[in-house]
Amino acid sequence: MTPAIEVRQATREHRVGQTAVVALRGVSLTLHRGEHVAVVGPSGSGKSTLLQLLGGLDRPTAGSVLIDGQDTAELPQAELARIRNRVVGFVFQGFHLQPRASALDNVALPLVYQGVRRAERRRRAADLLDRVGLADRARHLPGQLSGGEQQRVAVARALVTGPTVLLADEPTGNLDSVTGERLLDLLAGLNAEHRVALAIVTHDHEVAARARRQIVMRDGRIVSDSHIVSDSRIAGDGRIAGDTARRTGRA
Ligand SMILES: Nc1ncnc2c1ncn2[C@@H]1O[C@H](COP(=O)(O)OP(=O)(O)O)[C@@H](O)[C@H]1O
Ligand SMILES: [Mg+2]
Questions:
Q1: Which CATH number belongs to the domain containing residue 133 in this structure?
Q2: Ligand 1 near 16 CB (within 6 A)
């Protein structure tokens, strides 16, 4: 099966005046449907840049990114936008909601670009708001919602198109711990029930610990990419006792 997203030796360089800032240096990774990945690393290590490449919001200056098997470098902008809209949902740290549109209209917006008719858009947006526990907030403007509620609207908007992959950049960064925990439960549920692949950039160790795969970045590189291996597989090679352990591969 085609991986949801494949990154091959991707480098992203920014020109700032005379100097080149290298945000990513030859990063490779494959993200399959149904995976749950945490991306961690110090500030400036390239986490957000990697997420933007994964979602086709940005393109590498060298190497390639394939979304649903299609090379983002070879696609015209409009076609890339179409694939992005179909395959990827993006949750930003600062929500990025339209301040003058209701929660319902914010969630329905990605469907406008897909040419879905109004009644159908409203039906699907209402269904998503219900799933994130905000059915009774549909007519509220973002300013009339708490931070956690706004973030859940952003998650509903990211999911309304039925994406294969949900990319989230520090999704709990602006939330208190209880609200953050609830949001993570919601994401984990989507991952388990609907096999939506999750890639979550985080500073939070507890957030990272919930993922089955952890990618550690440093200076624009992936320095470790580890999977939690299940009990049976551990018993199979007979080396490790305990519930779970991480199998680490140097990248
Ligand atoms: N648009 C840009 N122009 C110049 N430098 C950038 C730009 N975006 C990111 N960078 C640089 O690339 C590096 C990685 O940034 P980023 O991916 O945002 O890191 P992280 O999300 O891990 O904090 C940083 O050194 C940052 O300053
Ligand atoms: Mg960042």
A1: 3.40.50.300
A2: yes
